[in-house]
Amino acid sequence: MAADVQIVFWGHACFGIHVDSQPFLLIDPFDPAGLGNIPGPPAINIRYPYVIATHDHSDHAAFHTQPDAVRLHAPYMDDAHRLTIDARTVAHDEFGGRLRGGTTQIFSITLREQRIVHCGDLGERLVGEALAWLRTPTPDVLILPAGGYFTLGADGASALAADIMPRHVLFCHTRDDGLPLPQLQSRDVIAKRVSAWPQRHLASLPLSKKANNECRPVVVWLERPQR
Is 0.90 topped by the overall pTM? Predict the structure, then answer.
């Protein structure tokens, strides 16, 4: 039997949440035209009923690519779908957002008792209340940018994952994730930082209520769907 909730990776920082094997919510849609002269990942070839973006940069908020989707904003609650979305605003960089473009939201999405946290373009190291909010309850999935330059890099992202200890970690926004910006670090660099943790390469991540038996996060590298 398929898991109730699945995570699909479309590229860059864009993830789809599927429910009962059907598209449900798309997070941070990108523009396939890319940035400058660097093309983005291939266009998403399915339609989602709902879409949400952590911030308004074109590589995260290309709503025109999902013209029929209902755009959601945090906070949001939908009892019929057992969905709640909360958010915290954080800086895009270590200088309060002055260097790389202001702020981004972190979304805490709870869907059918699964907590999925998408950290957007987080660039600052979190402490205090913001870190406590991320930790409790323990995320089933923590999605972290780790390419550096525009966001946290390998060191900052891996340190944050170690502070939070989610069931699963998905690193994104790297040079290998469909928008090959030369400033970004590769997946290999990040994988070496977390080499002591179990790592899986999957087409999608199924979620269930079964607890993770690992004492460390499971790092999941999702591959973009083949066209």
Answer: yes
